[in-house]
Amino acid sequence: MHQNEFVFEPLPQPSLPVIGSDKLFPVHRIYCVGRNYADHAIEMGHDPDREPPFFFQKNPDCLLTGGSDFPYPSATKDVHFEMEMVVALGRGGSDIATENALDHIFGYAVGLDMTRRDLQGEAKKLGRPWEVGKAFEASAPCSAVVPATHIGHPAKGAVWLKVNGAERQRGDLDQMIWKVPETISYLSTLFTLQAGDLIYTGTPAGVGAILPGDEMIGGVDGIGEIRVRVV
């Protein structure tokens, strides 16, 4: 493309660093799986039975990388953390078979699905979309991507989060209602997945509020950790 093809300078491509590489992982879309741990479904007031998965999206420029500070967002008094494993796709497609789904994964990361819970709650009551609660600036803190060639495909391992040194969340990947291959397969029937897509795979119980000055440290055993300060 020629420099003058756009009416203004395009924004930079959202991306994540890759462990063991000087190249970046370019992010296409961010999909998030709702209520994918039974204990979290219960704490949010829902039936933990294996209902079909559902998804919402965050925008790629919602990413917060490199351990940057999380700016407490506007229009809310109840911002919650949700610690999650993140799947980074290296191949896309539609109608991907469950048994082939792992072949589409480039690697894994750990991330926080930050949520304006009060705004999400209002949207739920009114039957409205969740974007105001989920897709605000810096609402998707994420670590560097660890290639699957380094760590394989984790199916178990602790998912945990501490706020100011006190543990608030702890679960295990093997508690997911919809496992990663099933999630990818189902999602690919709804969207044409692309290389560069991220999937936030859901959070265990224990979600709660944070305030400016708090420090969140969380991780998924076998993948990595993330440290985010609220400002």
TrEMBL record:
<feature type="domain" description="Fumarylacetoacetase-like C-terminal">
    <location>
        <begin position="30"/>
        <end position="231"/>
    </location>
</feature>
<keyword id="KW-0670">Pyruvate</keyword>
<dbReference type="InterPro" id="IPR036663">
    <property type="entry name" value="Fumarylacetoacetase_C_sf"/>
</dbReference>
<protein>
    <submittedName>
        <fullName>Fumarylpyruvate hydrolase</fullName>
        <ecNumber>3.7.1.20</ecNumber>
    </submittedName>
</protein>
<dbReference type="GO" id="GO:0034545">
    <property type="term" value="F:fumarylpyruvate hydrolase activity"/>
</dbReference>
<keyword id="KW-0378">Hydrolase</keyword>
<dbReference type="GO" id="GO:0046872">
    <property type="term" value="F:metal ion binding"/>
</dbReference>
<keyword id="KW-0479">Metal-binding</keyword>
<dbReference type="InterPro" id="IPR011234">
    <property type="entry name" value="Fumarylacetoacetase-like_C"/>
</dbReference>
<dbReference type="Pfam" id="PF01557">
    <property type="entry name" value="FAA_hydrolase"/>
</dbReference>
<dbReference type="GO" id="GO:0018773">
    <property type="term" value="F:acetylpyruvate hydrolase activity"/>
</dbReference>
